[in-house]
Design brief:
The complex is a heterodimer of chains A (239) and B (105).
Chain A lengths: L11 H28 L4 H10 L3 H12 L4 H12 L2 H8 L7 H7 L5 H6 L1 E3 L2 E2 L1 H24 L4 H6 L5 H14 L5 H15 L5 H8 L25
Antiparallel strand pairs in A: 1-2
Helix pairs in contact in A: 1-2, 1-3, 1-8, 2-8, 3-4, 4-12, 11-12
Chain B lengths: L3 H26 L6 H24 L11 H12 L4 H18 L1
Helix pairs in contact in B: 3-4
Classes of the chains: A mainly alpha (239), B mainly alpha (105).
């Protein structure tokens, strides 16, 4: 659920228009999630409910990947949680744009998605909440519908490989990774260290442990940070 | 763990965690900011985790799932991303290359 589409104006309607483009992008990923989850043994109902109540490609794929690789509940949840921790600073950036009592702001924050958040950026640290709401309102049903289609049409493992569909998830992770380089200082260095760590750790440790330990590579961003003279939160503003 | 009650617990717990992460900033912090270094590290978790998950998808436990025929497709995806093609174009092109490689080798 990423993207860098910028609407010429802000509000519900421009947000919905952006959401259509983002929805078309997330639909095939959702189909792949539904299909792979079914192929790996997840029953249809939990797979679909997962898309309804979690609604996060990266976290859902992390949960699926680690659980089906044999990791325990806490390791799998840890990996999925770390993936979504980026929403914490993103939530802080939009805090002043969300109005009303605490429960209303908490609900509004559920529309924070990578693409919607980027589309809502007005510049100078300001975000338009209606644009974000509109963009996410289209992506949610697209994500659920795609998952249902994937579950219903789940192909056999051999067919998945012959159709090259086993490339979809690594490819999706690669695109999200490359996108993250645009907003993360030293992103390629962090990713390089994480790749080396994971490559070695999966030989000696469960997948979930390898993923969690590789997260330590994020600390590279702090090396020499004090000498850069910029506010870290400046790096969070979308392009 | 792929079926039954534990799977429901995993999904439910992830949904709650996801809700709390997104709601924490707007609901609790308001306009107050987290320590800048903490924000930077949290944001840097994305490339670290995504790179790790990419490797896990490619290698599997003990490198048992590694298939070099996926690499050309990934290279094409990376190249098209550099050319600023859309996500769907990148993925479909990578899949087509993978199909071709598997058909030829």
């Amino acid at each position: 659920m990423n993207g860098s589409v910028s609407p010429p104006e802000f509000g519900w309607r421009p947000g919905l228009r952006v959401g259509v483009g983002l929805g078309l992008a997330v639909f095939p990923v959702a189909v792949s999630f539904g299909a792979l989850a079914t192929t790996l043994g997840w029953p249809p109902l939990p797979t679909i409910v997962c898309s309804v109540i979690v609604f996060s490609a990266g976290a859902q794929l992390a949960l699926l990947t680690t659980l089906t690789a044999g990791s325990g509940l806490f390791l799998a949840l840890g990996a999925a949680t770390l993936i979504n921790l980026r929403f914490l600073p993103m939530g802080i950036t939009v805090a002043s744009s969300l109005e009303g009592p605490i429960w209303k702001r908490a609900l509004g924050a559920q529309t924070i998605l990578d693409g919607s958040w980027a589309a809502a950026y007005q510049g100078a640290g300001r975000y338009d909440r209606l644009t974000m709401f509109g963009a996410s309102a289209v992506q949610w049903p697209a994500w659920i519908l795609g998952t249902v289609v994937g579950v219903v049409a789940a192909p056999q493992t051999s067919l998945v490989e012959s159709l090259g569909l086993d490339l979809v998830f690594p490819g999706f992770f690669l695109i999200l990774l490359l996108d993250s380089f645009r907003s993360t200082p030293r992103g390629p260095w962090i990713a390089g260290i994480a790749i080396l760590l994971t490559g070695g750790l999966v030989l000696v440790a469960p997948v979930g442990v390898a993923v969690l330990l590789s997260a330590l590579s994020a600390l590279v961003v702090l090396i020499g940070h004090g000498r850069r003279g910029s506010e870290p939160t400046d790096d969070l503003e979308p392009e | 763990m792929t079926t039954g009650e534990p799977l429901w617990w995993a999904i439910g717990a992830l949904a709650v965690i996801n809700f709390v992460i997104k709601a924490a900033g707007p609901a609790l912090l308001g306009d107050r900011a987290l320590p800048p270094k903490l924000v930077l590290v949290v944001h840097s978790l994305a490339p670290a985790l995504l790179a790790s998950l990419l490797m896990v998808q490619l290698l599997g436990q003990g490198w048992n799932a590694f298939d070099w025929k996926l690499l050309p497709g990934l290279a094409v995806i990376g190249l098209l991303w550099l050319l600023r093609r859309s996500q769907i174009v990148c993925i479909v092109s990578g899949v087509l290359v993978t199909i071709a490689i598997r058909a030829l080798v």
